[in-house]
Fold:
Amino acid sequence: MPSQTLKIDRARYVLTLDGERRIVQDGSILVEGQWISRVGTAAELAGVRADRVIDAHQLVVTPGFVNGHMHISYAHAVRGIFPDDVGSPLVHVFRLQMAMTEEEEYYTTLLGLVELLKNGTVCFVDPGSTKFPDACLQAYEDAGIRVILGECVADQDAPFPLPRYGTEEAVARTASFLPKWDGRLHGRIRAWAMPFSPETCSADLLRGVKRVADEHGTGLTLHHGSGPEARQEYLARHGLRPTEYLESIGVLGADVLLSHVLGLDDVEIECLARTGTAVAMCPVTAAKRGGGIPQHGRMPELLAKGVRVALGCDSPNNSNHLDPVRTMNMAAIQYKDARQDMRQIPAEQALEMATLMGARALRLGDELGSIEPGKQADLVLFDTRRPEWQALFNPVNNLVYNADGRSVHTVIVDGRVVVEAYRQTFVDAARLFSTVQEIGERLQARTGITFPRSRWPMV
Ligand SMILES: [Zn+2]
Structure:
């Protein structure tokens, strides 16, 4: 059977992110099956017919957005329950997560996927927070999103209840997870090794899961941070900074993605550049939790050294939104403020991190991240018929500084339209919202983790 064709016709602008970063005015894109086959001006594609044509003359087309760090499970059910004065909610977060049933995780995941897609995210890394991937498989399939999955493992004591195993068992679990999951749903699912962090995993565990990932030809992600205190501690214990320690045990490299990475010093940045290691930074989480971007944020230096930087949202109780446009905005503005220098992180660089560079950080740069023939048909169409898009002369500035995910009109993943005219096509949203609200109530009652619903009297 010949593959279905889809033509996005006469787009006001197509931000291609191709090798020359061309922005095509009055642009058209032809999609054949799952692939982009042609990109050009409307005039160049004038004679091209397709099974379906989307009139995009009021729309701006971008590549699908990539999220490098996003704990999909649990948090939608209890979003916003932590008051600002609770301090770090991590202990509660992990207890709530561990208390989820299969069915609850399926629904909260599905809601997470709805929010991701409706805001234009087509691919994300879930850093091992999903307990029941089998139960969630239907959600990934229905939503049509791309996901990088893994099983979170640790073998050391942690201040929060992580899944803790013996070292060999943790490595063996990773070794059986990868072949079971990698490549499912026509390649939309990828499986990586996901040790939690260097503090909660022994060197043997980290080496073991890295070896397993290498043997399987896949990636590895873990949480990582540094900063003066951690550096002192690591220097005293290992004679090395935290990032140097990871290098010394062979856990850095082109297939490794470190998340958060606040507090690195120049030596550690050099270490990442030298080893070709990628990072996922979560600018909104960093700001919301008081991460100290002026002292600890090194995004400009990482980019200057050629480190691949992806953007992430962390979780619905960290960022708390899953909006790549607001995330780009934060990345672009927070360093201007922190460094008191408007030249930091231009809008174009923020857009690259959320698309092409992010895809490269996720080892998917050959397939995703730009609008070029031969790439997967993952596209986001923004509606310019909204006040925040007016007036429109520089679509990159309008996107990064004016817009947010609410102007995402249509989303295409793998050639399939999954959001159409603001509506996701794969689930009854109203029913899903009330189901997740009920799950949140049950989860709080079951765990006893509750907080006053507001600092103000609720009457
Ligand atoms: Zn995380």
Summary: The mean pLDDT is 96. The chain is about 35% helix and 20% strand.
